[in-house]
Amino acid sequence: MNQPTNKNYQLLCSHFQSISHFEHLSALGDWDQAAMMPIGGGEARGAAMAELAKHIHSLKTAPMLEQTIAAAELEALTAQQQANLREIRYQYQQANIVPGSLVEAKTKAAYKCEQAWREQRSQNDWQGFRPNLENVLALAKEEAQIRAEALNISPYDALLDKFEPGMTSTRLEHIFGGLKSWLPGLIEQIQEKQRHQDRFQIPHASSDAQALLSRDVMTLLQFDFNHGRLDTSSHPFCGGVASDVRLTTRYDEADFTSGLMGVVHETGHAKYEQGLPLKWRGQPAGVARSMAIHESQSLFCEMQLGRGSAFLKQLQPMLQQRLDCNLSHEQLLNIYSRVTPGHIRVDADEVTYPCHILLRFEAEKALVGNQLAVADLPDFWSAQMQSLLGINTDGDYKNGCMQDIHWAVGEMGYFPSYTLGAMYAAQFRVAMEQQLGSMESLVASGHLSSVTGWLEHNIWSKGSLLTTDELVQQATGETLNPEYFKKHLLQRYGA
Amino acid sequence: MNQPTNKNYQLLCSHFQSISHFEHLSALGDWDQAAMMPIGGGEARGAAMAELAKHIHSLKTAPMLEQTIAAAELEALTAQQQANLREIRYQYQQANIVPGSLVEAKTKAAYKCEQAWREQRSQNDWQGFRPNLENVLALAKEEAQIRAEALNISPYDALLDKFEPGMTSTRLEHIFGGLKSWLPGLIEQIQEKQRHQDRFQIPHASSDAQALLSRDVMTLLQFDFNHGRLDTSSHPFCGGVASDVRLTTRYDEADFTSGLMGVVHETGHAKYEQGLPLKWRGQPAGVARSMAIHESQSLFCEMQLGRGSAFLKQLQPMLQQRLDCNLSHEQLLNIYSRVTPGHIRVDADEVTYPCHILLRFEAEKALVGNQLAVADLPDFWSAQMQSLLGINTDGDYKNGCMQDIHWAVGEMGYFPSYTLGAMYAAQFRVAMEQQLGSMESLVASGHLSSVTGWLEHNIWSKGSLLTTDELVQQATGETLNPEYFKKHLLQRYGA
Prior knowledge:
Chains A, B: Broad specificity carboxypetidase that releases amino acids sequentially from the C-terminus, including neutral, aromatic, polar and basic residues. The structure is a homodimer. Chain A is mostly helical.
């Protein structure tokens, strides 16, 4: 029998295919615990997920990998195979930095903290939440320290790198510093401009009716229900695997408008997953590029497309049919372009949203860098909210530092991805319009698939075959340029 | 540091605890694919579940087990620890018989066959189903052959043994032969007696209303919703893990009565799982004893308790409230004691039910023993149905040999457990009543918890600490005695 000329590479592919099977189960366990699992099932689930995380880690650090990767690097591979091998080496290196026992401990602590957080948040129970968060943070810091030493970067940068490979706090400070120089002024200016706008009564809408509406909107966005589903959870997310994407949302019967855009947002994530290259399923080159690129797709969908006039025009009859809602197109446009400083990040408009991220970025840096204790987080939060958005959160933990799931599950370093994503989304739109003409005109003339087609061709189908910089360079002609986001906000909201 | 005197035993406990974590994920994957997963997710899920099955198998056959078990058998252990060690050795032996590659191939084939079966069944598509079933059966036969050689028993007995350790086809032929001698006569006699009974209009009931009713009934039966949930699936089952039991049912809006007893049945399974000994969670001694004992608990709940007059009296106001159903207690009693030969096993009354099992037992034996080809199964089915229940199923595959999920997923040898379960249930009732007095009086006087308490004490809390024969002997004073089942049917239905 002939040996293939790239047998080491083939061996790696088969090994990482196995890993992807266990990651499939991990994604299922995460989705289930958030969307389905009764509280009493949490302890056993946490133990099972920790065992699984440890197992995946042991597969990613299998002793044979070092020399098999080295041997594969000498084999004759296509450009795409080389890209896959690059991602394989990256995953191997990342996993090797952290001991399996820490991976297991982190998973257990995260499960415990999150399970309790769900109830504690609704009870505004900061004192109950704090020790769990301290526990999770201690483990995140332990990981940060280990990664920092291995990569010779700062502990916080070592966490950023997990979600956005190559991103540094210095670069973020530069990007966010730019934002800080003009965003507060713009917010003030828009608020002044919108002060005298009419406010509309949002009609009551049952959860059942909103669920039907959500399916309609997902269908409009070409979500493939043969490869995914929609459920509810206390913290909306997009999970599952590319062949079976699990979205969740939540419904506020007194105000459907936020949940509706939540579904549009999560559908953006889902379309990215469903559009990942079929040929590379189960391989490291076949997964989504980074969290910032993932958020760019959800925010493209929600902010660039979803809050545009043409898309809202298509929603209007659906609202009428499903919710018996008589808001006019102009009223919808008005509602979805309102800029209102608020407590809750996920409910924020796109102009005040970056302020929520600035706060979290500063808090994370300080927590990981030992300049801020968990006990002092609520005061830090309130002071920052006051300074950035004029909001006091003293004593209101539920709508303050307890509102998000990320820290409860130990994901320190994730938040900047949201604002980077908003910036990439603006940049993608400009590039797309240079090729296809105005997105508004395309949507208005029934050519939404030209828009999704561009995203599929330039982003989704690339998986991780390119680095983030290569991906953005090929799609837009340059790497990340925050100016497009500024131009977008000025154009949509400016005086 | 002092070494524990039973360190080999402790090592085994820790190893099997790990295995139970992966089995937790396996149970979750199974439940999800039946109750939640969109069809398009099936291929990736099947691959993930096959990988997981292979991994669990590799853990159960780890090379260190042979000598660790042998060493543990020389250690000073309590009686319960000895029982756990016995179950550990049993699981190890069972796993060692079958190669991991066959476990993986079986899982893949079962997933493929089941996924397709769901659609094929509704389309009555026998020609589409047949090659998949042949494939699944070929693998089941391969397993049977390997097990038969290792255990020095017949291939079909080797499959029976998986679900009901120690059960043989000879013993079953004796038990079922007994049934055959009197059951057809009884069915005829009851039909004659019931020929002139009134028939009642069953009111239409929406799925939503039935779902609320189901929760009420589960609550009445003390199902713990903090450790479980209820959903719908095309084939009702009880899955999940002891700390998070996942029931499913299906609702027929034109006739709620079958779905309602389906929920009572599955709740019987669930109570067994929820009542397993907390102290032994994650250990082989802590799981349910056997499938026949499992079915004894569901059938106790559905047939002994659920169709009794006192329980139906408690259901009656719930039906009124949730379904606006005005059937009287007498009418309910009448409906739930009707004996009507029908096509569908899961909808069968308790008198004709064993006929469905007799048929499947004969078919399984013949299929595994190469006396029957899959291609000839429909004719075999129709002939047997004709002879046992006077029903012709020619061409009606959907309500014939395609109705059940078991063979589609390769579970040959499971069906006899149902009728063994019905026999155990009757036997348990007699023993319980000898200690507590009439179950009907207990339920009528609001002492349902005395009934569940007896089951918990004698069955649920024993897990697998006793063998099946020991369990039944301790609970009832003798091993399986089919006479109690006969007496029960004669007493409830006899002339």
